[in-house]
Amino acid sequence: MNKKYLSAEQIAFFNANGYLTVEDIITPDEIEHYKDIYNDFLSKKIDVGANRSDLGDGLGKSKTRESITQIMWPSDFVKELIDMPFHQRALAISRELIGDDAEMDFDMLINKAPNTNTITPWHQDEAYWLNVPDKRAASCWLALDEATVDNGCMWFVPGSNLKEVRPHRFAGKEGGALTCNATENEGVYIELKPGSCTFHQGRTLHYSRGNSTHTERRAFILNFRPAEMIKYERERGFDHGRNNAGDRKLKNDDFKD
C-alpha cells in the first residue's frame, strides 16, 4: 500500500483555501544535501545558460546582481533530482491533493539573496500558463532556509482558488514577472522552518516580500498537474521555459488589464 501523507482534514483545507502547509517533507540531512546542489547552481558551478534569469528584473534597485534568481528545470542538469526524496514525496502528496493522474510538470529554483529586498509581486500562477481544459494543479514551495516575513516567506489569499483569475500585467520589464491587484490585508503569511513546504493551487493568489535580512532564502519549487494536461501543453509548444527560457508572456488574453 502506498504511504498516505495527508489527512482528510488537510485535503479539505487545501480545497477550501487553496494552500496547505506540510511540515518536514525532507530531513535535516537531506536539507544539507539539497543546499549543496542548490549552491552549485547559484555559483554557476552547474551552468544552466538561458535557464537562469532575474525574476525581479526591473523591480530591484541593484544593477550589478540579480534581484531574484530563477533557475528553470534544475532536474535537466542534475538528473538524479527526480528520484531524490523531495520530488518523490511531493509527487505522492500532489496525487493526494489533485488526483492519482498527477505528474511533475516542471521544477525551478527561486533564490532571494541577502539584502536584495525585492518583492515577488502578487500573482496567480494560472496567468503564466496555457488555458488548459483541466485546471487541477499543485505547486510545492520548499524552504531550504528558515522562511520568515522579513526574508520572503509565502503569503496566500485564502479562498482565491475558488474565484476568477484577476487581470495581470507585467510588474517591471516586459517579459519579467507578472502581477495583479492584491494586498497583504487580504492574505496570510506562512513562515516555514527548513525542510517544510507549502502546496498551493494554480489560481491561489500569492506573493512574498523581499529579503531584507543578512541570510539566504533558498526555495525549491515543483509543479504538478494531470499527465494529460502536460501532454496538452507540450503539443502546443508550452514547456515552462525548457526550450524558450526567459520567454514570459500573458498566456491567456482574458487575464490582461
UniProtKB/TrEMBL annotation:
InterPro entries referenced in this protein's UniProt entry, alphabetically: Phytyl_CoA_dOase-like
Keyword Protease: no
Disordered: annotated span: 238-257
Pfam families for the chain: PhyH (PF05721)
The keyword Oxidoreductase is assigned to this record: yes
GO MF term list: 2-oxoglutarate-dependent dioxygenase activity; iron ion binding
Keywords in alphabetical order: Dioxygenase, Oxidoreductase
Gene3D superfamilies, sorted: q2cbj1_9rhob like domain
Protein name, as recorded: Phytanoyl-CoA dioxygenase family protein
